[in-house]
Design brief:
The chain has a domain of 48 residues. It contains 23 helices and no strands. The longest helix is centred in the first third of the chain and has 18 residues. The protein is elongated. This is Tetratricopeptide repeat protein. InterPro entries: TPR-like_helical_dom_sf (IPR011990), TPR_rpt (IPR019734), Ycf3 (IPR050498). Pfam families: TPR_16 (PF13432), TPR_19 (PF14559). Keywords: Repeat, TPR repeat.
Length: 395
């Protein structure tokens, strides 16, 4: 049933897109067969028919463009780009062909070529918001966020009611570090289109970043309702719950995400951290071992793994894990600080003190490192120095 529903949705998208193109009379019967197969969710069979049409179909730009759009919705972007290039070559005055060519190139990660296609379209139709949006997306993907914002501003100016443009603009603002402005843009997107799941997810993530965790959670729950099978959305719901101090619910969300994407190192890591908070270090250790297998050099995973070992009193193993992590990232403040804590717990106060000094150099504002230095000095019999550091920690 889900495949049929997805097929019908994709079929309608192809029909709507094709209806905006220049008319194309005399479509071959195989075209209708390809659309019926798509509607029934038989994507591989539809792709076979589309490839036959690419060879034997009518040599007209209107048909090549329709075939390109079909290939794009069949997740065949290279073949889509080939057909759309053909359409643009046969009819160089049609801006829509350039737009769809840009979309196909975006799907392939060919940002510069996509930008060129959208730019060519804008020369033909400078008022088309889709072309401004497309070029903005290409620039953003290419890492040129400031330029992208100019084009995305033009997209929303040309069509203030286009929710997708407001969503993309929000992503651009977030990339530029303007999170509150990004949140306003995402709010505009979901106001215009309450069923735009990615915009709800982006709004939730951004609100969490600016400290509005309760509303962030509500937005992410809405995104989840719109995309119940998306493991990334489920992961973000879990992250919001963890931020709200609800580790049991967060762990459940992470487990549901892992059922859909079992090898996500980030989700495994976050589940392991929740299990530690819930007082389940044994299970946390198993989960974090899986996270390390998925992402061996990730300092955050190594840190959580070491903490799980420490909770079980396995300090030498934890220390070895931290040192392996520091080989990959010698300046990771969390690993440096936890190495100091671990050495302190092992009774090696001289070494622990040296590591707390390193941790302070990396995180001067973190007072816990001052407390650690003071405690080490006290254990080493250097009482006057210890008092000085305790006073500095309390200041």
């Amino acid at each position: 049933m889900q495949r049929l529903r997805r097929g019908i949705f994709t079929y309608l998208k192809v029909r709507r897109a094709a209806a905006q193109l220049p008319p194309c009379g005399g479509l071959p019967p195989a075209w209708g067969r390809a659309l019926r197969l798509l509607m029934w969710g038989k994507t591989p069979e539809a792709a076979v028919v589309a490839r036959d049409l690419a060879v034997a179909g009518p040599p007209r730009p209107e048909f090549a463009a329709r075939l390109g759009i079909l290939f794009l919705h069949l997740e065949c972007p290279a073949e889509a780009a080939e057909q759309l290039r053909r359409a643009a070559r046969l009819d160089p005055e049609c801006a829509l062909y350039r737009y769809w060519l840009g979309e196909a190139l975006l799907r392939q990660g060919r940002w510069d070529e996509a930008e060129a296609a959208f730019t060519a379209g804008l020369r033909l139709a400078p008022e088309d918001p889709r072309l401004w949006l497309g070029k903005g997306r290409a620039l953003l993907e290419a890492g040129r966020a400031q330029e992208a914002l100019v084009h995305l501003d033009a997209a929303v100016a040309a069509d203030p009611d286009r929710a997708a443009a407001w969503n993309e603009r929000g992503l651009c603002l977030a990339r530029l570090g303007l999170d509150r402005d990004a949140a306003r843009s995402f709010r505009r997107a979901v106001t215009l289109d309450p069923d735009l799941g990615p915009a709800w997810a982006n709004l939730g993530i951004t609100l969490e970043k600016i400290g509005e965790a309760e509303e962030a959670h509500r937005c992410l729950v809405r995104a989840q309702a719109l995309a119940p099978g998306d493991p990334v959305v489920l992961h973000n719901v879990g992250h919001a719950l963890a931020t709200l101090g609800r580790p049991a619910e967060a762990a459940e969300a992470f487990r549901r995400a892992l059922a859909l994407e079992p090898h996500s190192a980030e989700t495994l890591h976050n589940l392991g951290v929740c299990l530690l908070e819930l007082g389940q270090p044994g299970e946390a250790l198993e989960v974090l071992e899986r996270a390390l297998a998925a992402s061996p050099g990730d300092p955050a995973v190594v840190l959580a793994y070491g903490r799980a070992l420490e909770v079980q009193g396995r300090y030498p193993e934890a220390l070895a894990a931290y040192r392996r992590g520091l080989e990959a990232d010698p300046h990771h403040a969390g690993l440096v600080g936890q190495t100091a804590v671990c050495l302190f717990r092992m009774g090696d106060y001289r070494q622990a003190h040296a590591w707390f000094v390193r941790a302070r150099a990396l995180e001067p504002a973190n007072r816990s490192h001052l407390w650690g230095q003071a405690a080490c000095l006290e254990r080493m019999g250097r009482a006057e120095e210890a008092v000085e550091f305790y006073n500095r920690a309390l200041a």
